[in-house]
Amino acid sequence: MDNAAGSKLKIHIPPLPLRAIEALNSEGFEAYAVGGCVRDSLIGISPNDWDIATGAEPEQVKKLFKRTVDTGLKHGTVTVLLDNESFEITTFRIDGEYRDNRKPEEVRFTRSLKEDLSRRDFTANAIAYHPFHGLIDPFGGVSDIQKRIIRAVGNAEKRFNEDALRILRAVRFSAQLGFEIDKKTLEGIKATSFLLSNISSERIRDELTRLLLSNNPMKFSLLNDTGILSHVLPELEPCFATDQRHPYHIYNVALHSLTAVKNIEATPVLRWTMLLHDTGKPHTKTTDKKGTDHFYGHHHKSTEIANAVLKRLKFDNKTIDTVCRLVKNHDRQIEPQPTAVRRAVCSIGEDIFELLLKVRAADIKAQNPAFLPDRLEKLGKIRNIYMEIKAMGQCLSTRELSINGDDLIASGFRQGKEIGGILKNLLKEVVNNPELNQRETLLEMALKAQRRKPR
Predict the structure, then answer these.
(1) Deepest of 23, 101, 236, 327, by most Cβ within 10 A of its Cβ?
(2) Residue ranges per domain, the chain?
(3) Least confident interval from 93-97, 103-107, 208-212, 418-422
(4) Are strands 85-91 and 51-54 parallel, antiparallel or unpaired?
(5) β-sheet bridge partners, residue 78
């Protein structure tokens, strides 16, 4: 799309970034809104951030604005603070040689907006906008947005060799925006996917998480189709080749898992849980004489794999612990009876039980729809019983018992591990009969148990 045609399309720039552009223009510097904010505005999405590109060099930007932060002066970026908002203002630049597939060895500032746009990853992100001059679109980004296409700027392999993370970004943008990846760009991805082994675990983790949190997580299958998966999540590869010949299932393990991802709310813990919950199935698959597949104990293997994956991707310990506990218990069978539900909560942990119910629902919805009504009805009964238990304030953990360790010590019990064991045994009794959760009753039970112990 040429600039004349582009000038007819108008984008609303909020007052503060507009003020920054006008301040730069008033000093004789070119300045434009660029990148994702322009792309999102053209799609109809409200941008989270407004980035500005300018012919002014960093020191000139700093002189022009009172409050600035040196975000990345080497790469020409200054963060400008106006009122309570901040904007990144980056000098037009040309990137030098990329030797590590991550970042340029050096950058050179330029006065040319087109040269600056030519270094960007995809045409949809290589568009600039000025409130008076309109769109500057030298690489056909507007047309690609209208056609809903992700296309690399220039030679795709060169772009991916410069920064291999762009390979994952292409799939992530495809999922977030609902766009298809251009054929030549897809070929470039396949040819360079091995370069992802040079990218840090943290950067890969963040891109994969954004992909999973998108509205189109089924696009994750592109990672397998293009060879990316073997370099970022090889544990998932066997899932795409593992069928499930079982009455409860209609998809292979990978498609079932991705459907379950789509069926659950978009939080990192829940979506990573659904992605990893059946990774143990390829390793535990057996087929009986009737041709029915079984995956006995797959939850244990899946937990082991989930733990390894999340540690390699350097997730925080709390996320690792929560996801692994959900994976371990995702297939746990619970009867819709108050005692059974209380036992399950105590065993699994009250802190994740509601999350587990969401995991079970997403798992069931990704299976054979013929069994959906009955299985969801049963799950609904379990949820209702759990909510009633909570509303009644029934005891579900040792800290909710009507006595504690101090009470036992005051009654003559020895301090140490024995106290914890006694409290756990009392909890088992209370879970079976909530009416026992009375201080005197529990002390009497503890003393009786102590007297029965062999001396």
Answers:
(1) 327
(2) 3-147, 160-226, 398-449
(3) 103-107
(4) parallel
(5) 89
Q: Read off φ and ψ for residue 135, nearest 5 degrees.
A: -85, 140
Q: How many Å apart are CA 260 and CA 366, to the nearest integer?
A: 5
What topology is assigned to 160-226 in CATH? Hydrophobic Seed Protein (1.10.110)
Average pLDDT over residues 165-170: 98
**Residue 297 region by backbone torsions, left for phi larger than 0, else alpha for psi between -120 and 50, else beta:** left
Band (454; pLDDT cuts 50, 70, 90): low
User: Are the C-beta atoms of residues 21 and 131 closer than 8 Å to each other?
Assistant: yes
pLDDT tens digits for 79-130? Answer: 999 998 899 999 999 886 766 666 766 789 999 999 999 999 999 999 999 9
What are the phi and psi torsion angles at 264 (to 5°)? -115, 155
Domain 3-147 coded CATH 3.40.50.10860? no
165: exposed, middle or buried (Cβ count in 10 Å: 0-12, 13-18, 19+)? buried
273-296 pLDDT, tens digit per residue, is 999 999 999 999 999 999 999 999
What's the rounded Cα separation, in Å, for the pair 208 and 90? 27
Quick check: 43 pLDDT over 50?
Answer: yes
